[in-house]
Amino acid sequence: MSRILVTGATGFVGRAVGKALAQAGHHAIGLVRPPQGRSACAEEWLDASVDFGGLAQAVPQGAALDAVIHCAARVHVMAQAGSLAALDAFRATNVKGAVRVAELAHSLGARRMVFVSSIKAIAEAEPGRPLREDDSAHPQDAYGVSKREAELALAAFGRETGMEIVIVRPPLVYGPQVRANFLRLLDAVAKGWPLPLGAVRARRSLIYVDNLADALVHCAMDARAANLCFHVADSEDIEVAALVRALAAGLGRPARLVPVSPGLLRVAGRLSGKDAAVARLVGALRLDTSRIRATLGWRAPWTTEAGLAQTVRWYRAERGMGARRND
């Protein structure tokens, strides 16, 4: 039984990782902040420090680790996300904090760190084909910049110490307990709001949270993953309009899709100062996942259809909508 530390263990991804580790027979240790409720891990270490600055104080005497899966991150976009102050805040958590976690894990005997990065570390849109791990990095916001810098800093730490660093870049993650943009989309569909996405044909990669957790466990335990970077996603890419229709069907609501051309949407985005948000809706962003499939033999255990069904089922319960007859 391997002892694996999970940072951000009470978060959206971290909770799923703790559950996946337990199901695979490993001893998961959740690094949690007070007061954030229980994780799905067998053991918890309480870290009240800022940006992992006092992480050593959370470790019980005589503790040892085999690996760490680093899920914790600053993800919220602040009011001035493009400012230097915002970038400094992202760097403090996502770069310096990640290195501190690596240092502590290495001191406790961990042979490997799996770093949950983001496709935003290299791009916000694809170059006419699915993005590969070796594509040039051009992050567009403070979050993406910090994730890319963390990748480089951790790789350097690995070269210096011999610790194996595995980088995993997911696209948008969805599933029960999802927040941010995906939850807002669920709310809009549930309320029957018209959405100007009927003419958008670009496909985007997504990943169901339990698919991501499964991939992270493979990356933590499979010797073949050492010092590699992997793009992970569901097996199917999906058009935004098709995503809206699938959510609407699950919610028992009509899909109110208005056919507005992507070009006109981009113009509206520029005029409203929301060009980046519009670009994420109308632009293609597919990930090439052939490396993890060829190297580790990994396949997403959940289909996108099944993942969306689980997400909608949770949302209906969360909003008190009741279960559908065919659930």
Structural write-up:
With 327 residues, the chain is α/β, with parallel strands linked by helices. It has a domain at 3-174 and 207-234 and 286-301: Rossmann fold (3-Layer(aba) Sandwich), CATH 3.40.50.720. Helix content is 41%, strand content 13%. The chain contains 10 helices and 11 strands. The protein has helices spanning 12-23, 84-107, 142-161, 180-190, 209-221, 240-251, 262-272, 275-282, 290-296, 304-318; strands at 3-7, 27-32, 43-46, 67-70, 112-116, 164-169, 172-174, 203-204, 206-208, 229-231, 238-239. Strands 3-2-1-4-5-6-10 form a 7-stranded parallel beta sheet, with helices on both faces. It has a two-stranded parallel ribbon with strand order 7-9. Strands 8-11 form a two-stranded antiparallel ribbon. The longest helix is centred in the first third of the chain and has 24 residues, at 84-107. The model has no long low-confidence stretch (mean pLDDT 93). Residues 4-221 form the NAD-dependent epimerase/dehydratase domain. It holds the Pfam family Epimerase. This is UDP-glucose 4-epimerase.
List keywords for this structure.
327 residues, alpha/beta, Rossmann fold, seven-stranded parallel sheet, two-stranded parallel ribbon, 10 helices, 41% helix, globular
Summarize the structure.
With 327 residues, the protein is α/β, with parallel strands linked by helices. It has ten helices and eleven strands.
Helix content: 40-55%
Trace the largest sheet across and list its strands: 3-2-1-4-5-6-10
| Number of discrete helical segments | 10
CATH architecture of the domain at 3-174 and 207-234 and 286-301: 3-Layer(aba) Sandwich
Sheet/helix structural class:
alpha/beta
Give the DSSP E fraction (strand runs of 2 or more residues): 5-15%
Q: Work out the number of β strands.
A: 11
Q: What is the CATH topology of the domain at 3-174 and 207-234 and 286-301?
A: Rossmann fold
Look at the structure and name the CATH superfamily of the domain at 3-174 and 207-234 and 286-301.
NAD(P)-binding Rossmann-like Domain
The sequence of SSEs as H and E is: EHEEEHEHEEHEEHEEHHHHH
CATH class of the domain at 3-174 and 207-234 and 286-301: Alpha Beta
Could you list the spans in which at least 5 consecutive residues all have pLDDT below 50?
Answer: none
Biggest beta-sheet profile: 7 strands, parallel
Radius of gyration: 20 Å
Termini separation: 37 Å
Overall pLDDT confidence: 93
Principal-axis shape equals globular
